[in-house]
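Our preliminary data section would be incomplete without showing what the modeling component actually yields. Below, a chain of 398 amino acids is followed by its predicted structure, encoded as C-alpha cells that our downstream tools consume directly.
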Amino acid sequence: MSAVTVIADDAGALAVAAELAADFRKDAAERDARRRLPRPELERLSASGLLAVTVPAEFGGADVRTETLAEIFRLLASADASLAQIPQSHFVYVGVLRRQGTREQKEFLFGEVLAGKRFGNAQSEAGTSHVQDIRTRLARRLDGSYVLDGVKHYSTGALFADWIPVLARADDDNLHVAYVPRDAPGLTVVDDWDGMGQRTTASGTVRLESVPVPADRVVPHHLTFRGPQLHGAVAQLLHAAIDAGIAAGALAEAVEFVRTKSRPWFESVAEGHESATEDPLLIQRFGELAIRVRAADALLSTAARSVDAAHAHLTDDSAAAASIAVAAAKVTAAEAAVEVGSALFEVSGTRSALDSLGLHRHWRDARTHTLHDPARWKVQHIGRYLLNGTQPPRHGLL
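Predicted structure:
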C-alpha cells in the first residue's frame, strides 16, 4: 500500500470522497458486468485516508460529523453501490471500538486504521431461528485467551479486510466482538456470494475453526445496549446513505441517457416537441423522480444531524429521536432507490435495456441492498413512537 493520507477535517473528507466517486464511477458498469472485485479501488480508498475519518481526534483522526460520514457514503454509492457497501461494516466496528474498547485496544486498533488497514465483518449467520440468534462461540481458555468457532454468512468486506471483527457469544452467552487478523489460523473467507445485485461486495462466508484470539482483542459489545445507544442508528444511516446514493446515481444516468441518446416519441413530435427533453410527459416524470431523490437526501441529512445531536447529549430520548429519524430516512431512501432504478428504463426507452450498457445494475443493486432489513418494521416503530410515545428497542438494527 502506498503512503496513507491523514485527513484533517470534514471538508477534506468530503473533497476526497467526491474525487474518489468521480473516478470509481468510470468503470463501475464494467466491474459489475464482469464481477471484477474492486481490490485496486479499495487500496485507493485506504490510501486516501477516508477509512480513518471517524477515529477520535485524541488518537489522531479527523473525528468527522455523522452528517459528513453519511454524505461520504452517499457520494460513493452514487458511483458504485457495491464498492460503497464494503466499508460500511468497517465504520460500524470502528464505532464499537470507540464505545467499548479499552484505552490500549483503541491505541492499537485505531493506529491500524490510520495506517490504512480495513475492518471487515463476520456477523450474520444463516440457518438460525432469526437474525439475532448468534451461535458462533467465543470460548475462554485457562490462560485467559479465547478460541472462536462458527460459520458466518453475508460477511461483506471480509475478503478484502486486514482485520475481521467477529460477533460471537462468550461462555456467559453475552455478545462480544473479537477483532481477528484476516490471516489468523483456522479462519477461512469463501468468495461464494452470487447475489443478482451488489455483485462485487464479495459478501461471502467466513468459517471459524478453533481460531485463537488473545484476550486483548475482545470487546464486550453487549454493554452497548444497556443504556442509550446510537450503534444501530449509525449502522442504519450508512445503509440509508447507500440507498440514497443508488437513487441519485440512477437518476443522473437517466438524465444523461435522455439528453444524449433518446429519440422523442412520435406523438410528442407531432405536438411540436423536437427532442425527448422537450416531451412534457417525460418532464413530468423526471420532476417526480427528482422529488423522490431530494426527499431521500433531505431526510438523510436530517437523520444524520439528529444522530450528531444525540452524540452530543446522549439520553434515552435523544437516542430514540435519532433512531426514528434514521428509520424514516431509511424507508424513504429504499423506496427511492427501487423506484428510480426501475423508472430509469421507463423514461429512457427500449435501448436503455441493452445488457451491454449495464444500466440495470442500479435497480439490481437497489433491490438487493434494500433487502438488508425490512422497512415494514421501521414504519411500525415510527408509528408507535408518534402515536404512543413508544421508544424504539435497543437491538442495533434501528
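The chain has a mean pLDDT of 97. The beta strands are 137-140, 146-152, 163-170, 175-181, 187-190, 205-213, 218-219. Preliminary results of this kind motivate Aim 1 of the renewal.
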